[in-house]
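INFO batch 0412 | record 1 of 1 | parsing
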Amino acid sequence: MDIAVVGINHTCSSFTLREELTRAFEKAFAFADNDSLKCSYVLLLTCNRAEIYFSAKEITKVHVKILNILRRYVSFAFEHALYSYFDTDTFLHLARVSSGLDSALVGESEIQSQVKLAYEKARKTRNLSSSLHYLFQKSLRLGKYTRSDFSFSKEGNHLSTVILKQLQCTFEAFDGLSVLFLGNSEINRRVLAAFMYKPFENIRLCTNHKVDPSFERRFQGVEVLDYKEVENLSFYDIVVVAGKYDKYLIEEISNNIPKKRIFFDLCVPRSVHPKLQHYPDLTLFDMEKLSVLFDKRQKFYKKELLECEEHLAKYVGRYFLLFHKKSERKKFYQTPTTLADVS
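INFO prediction complete | emitting tokens
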């Protein structure tokens, strides 16, 4: 299929290195007018991974070119932290990603929509090869199959579930608590949706963009503010940050009020300065700390996960062969024939 992927995720590097490489992937390949690769590709950036899926006739040359481009943005050795897959291994990898098997929170639901959004964005901004279209469409289909047939994908494997459980361990009750969401991202909206069913005193969201009517209908009662509200962080009990920022959004808290608080930084690179964890009565969770809580689920579903891996490998093999058969038939019918060829 002439497809490959280069990437980094939560399993193969330190959190700091993953932050730097995520920045590099975004700067190098995220913009629509950036055609430095001269090939078809899809960039997938989430809070726990940065990957570029690409297709080309000379796949190894493009692979080398990707590494050289990344070196422009990273000043230290990083190649040891990256993984690369080719052909059917690429297919199996994306199927595992879409199914939530390769996630820090095994079976998480957010990754399916993130893969779809990355594919849709690439499809709208550049011409994709038939190989990449096939790769993403079939991997998304396998992700849906996994979620409908295996229990580890059905039983509340949401980031919001983990966050709410942590809040229950921190506070005796939700009544009277004030919540601030920073960033109108897809992840924040998913967490916000779960918070709507809890008796918080008030929930507010900060964004620089006007929210659409569908947001107002879905999140009635949520007050929308601009980022000036960051100056009033000390008055909130819970702060959830999820978005893309060029630098730390929160570096300190002015007028610090001594009370129990908890911050969730769902960004990679981080948007809340790590020094805030030293503030009295403040608990800071970034994605690295949250991943420790995620590990427990993988041990619980170990047997079923192995069964799911086997199913995915089988279907990926079938889809891969089917693509090649279709490609061969297409080449046959496109080959010009003459009387001389027949005789």
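INFO post-check: The chain has a mean pLDDT of 88.
INFO record closed
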